[in-house]
Design brief:
117 residues, alpha+beta, GMP Synthetase, Chain A, domain 3, 3-stranded mixed beta sheet
Amino acid sequence: MGSIKLSRIASSITRELSRIFYEEVHNEVLKSVTIIDTKVTNDLSMAKVYYTFMGDYDKIKVAEELKNASSFLRCELAKNIDIRNTPELRFVYDESTEYGEHIEDILEEINNENKEK
């Protein structure tokens, strides 16, 4: 399958999952989840869904909630995206946001040290 088509399908999955989380999910832990990106395999059998979340939730708890909800999410996705087989959803925590915040903290600390001198 062409990379443009795979990219378009991945984008559709990201958009639709974001909508589902916003409109149809009632679990407060899952309401805090933000879908960052999706990568699909060439045969569309699996989709890695990269996410982050806001709030004071534990990463493990959020991951468990996503795993428990994955069949519901896949079913909702199948209703709203026009592809023959809906891929299995695997959720992967995206640490880039956390890493970016860490870099910002370091830069701020360096900036404060320079102001004190």
